[in-house]
Amino acid sequence: MSVDVPLCVLTAVTGVSGSGKSTLVTQVLAEVVRGHLGLAPEEPDAAQLEVDVQDASGVESFDRLVRVDQRPIGRTPRSNLATYTGMFDAVRKLYAATVEARARGYSAGRFSFNVPEGRCETCQGEGFVAVELLFLPGTYAPCPTCQGARYNAETLEVTYRGKNIAEVLALSVDAAAKFLSAVPAASRSLETLREVGLGYLRLGQPATELSGGEAQRIKLATELQRARRGHALYLLDEPTAGLHPSDIALLLRQLHRLVDAGNTVVLVEHDLDTIATADWVIDLGPGGGDAGGQVVAAGPPAKVARARRSATAPYLAARLARS
After folding, report:
1. 95 and 155 together in one domain
2. What is the 8-class DSSP label of residue 59?
């Protein structure tokens, strides 16, 4: 197995466990690279995988492994897009530098909803309170004191360009990109989020409200804004699931940015547009469920489109003919 192809797509016939087998391949690949880098298994189950790396080549070229998965960026309303990307640090410093904040002696910490001095004490800075329901799962409701603003009244009296910090968190990424265009540290992060099609999300949108695909693209955007050198391996699991074709085009553009920067991207995918733009395709089949799991074709998209045993081939051939 070679892992030195710039953009590789693993595709599988859909079925009970078709895509699950291709996902397992990426898990094995991740453990091969983690072993090369001297890293411990990422998950307890991965430690039990029996991985034979004798036939692996190209592993020595990687100096970093990044798994961009669909797991949540946080499990409570306290976690959100702004804090995960690190953008919120720049926003807090911006508010701490205002004339009003300096006059009151407020530091950047005052504008963190995790600090007692600035947060609403009723909801402890979450903006929501937990509501226990008899015979039903618990849920969250807006805080009755701050109405979801997260901060106490004194903190909200400090404004920048007419907005307090809670109002900035309520802005969409698109709106915030305009509002914070003069703040380079925040602007760079916001533009990257827009480039992966997340301009509609609110900066303070709780992690519990994000889909798996949105969480995955937030992680991808966070990686894209980091200036790193070397050769990293990026692993993604069906990143186009649920996306509009226009958003898929945006996503592919960013994945190719990673490749152009000298990295390798491997993803599990069924979307034909994504498969057609790959440098290398590994097609698993020949059927779904227990009838799958074998490599039926491998190579550039044009070669896989001619494979006789591949269920993907005729559809990929038709897609390539339209290009």
Report:
1. yes
2. G
